[in-house]
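Q: Two folds, back to back.
A: First:
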Amino acid sequence: MPAYAVFIRDEPPHDPAGLATYQKMNSESVSAYLAHGIKPIVVYGAIEALEGIAPDGAIILQFPSMADAKAWYESPEYQNALQYRLKAANYRAFLMEGL
């Protein structure tokens, strides 16, 4: 059953340079993405709020399973990059199973 990692940024980053470092580290670890079967579904596309306030940005990544999603999130490659994102911007992140 596919699983999805959802990242929601409610406001602009307070450290754009730190976020750029995070994004660069992620793009350099393509092999880690491929190893976990990641398929980007949404990456900061246009947002139109239907209810509530629109977030500043959102990302949805598809994985083959919840186990694959957790393995990617807990991988050393992602954890090394994550520290920059956590310092640069406030996100909500969660994993969910699909149908």
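A: Second:
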Amino acid sequence: MRVIWSVRARQELEALRRFSIGRWVQDAAARYLEDVRDAAKRAGQDPRRARPLKGPYRILRVRSHYLILHVDAGADRLTVARVLHTAMDIERHLP
């Protein structure tokens, strides 16, 4: 399944990158972001890795963040819709 990132998810990933670099050394921040991207790739290989959330959405925890995923099996596409911190109210931030 092809994995794409929504504009909003790319913005959130960039904000996560900036925050991580400010908080940790650059290598640790890079590993964190790599873990997020790798988790999205693995979900594209098998969307069942993520728990059902609401409608076509699934949720996958990666460290201290959740990936909100939209699965479109007909188009063979998984869209990373949001990248949200675990402390956030997920329902409030659903697409």
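Q: And?
A: The chain has one domain: 2-93.
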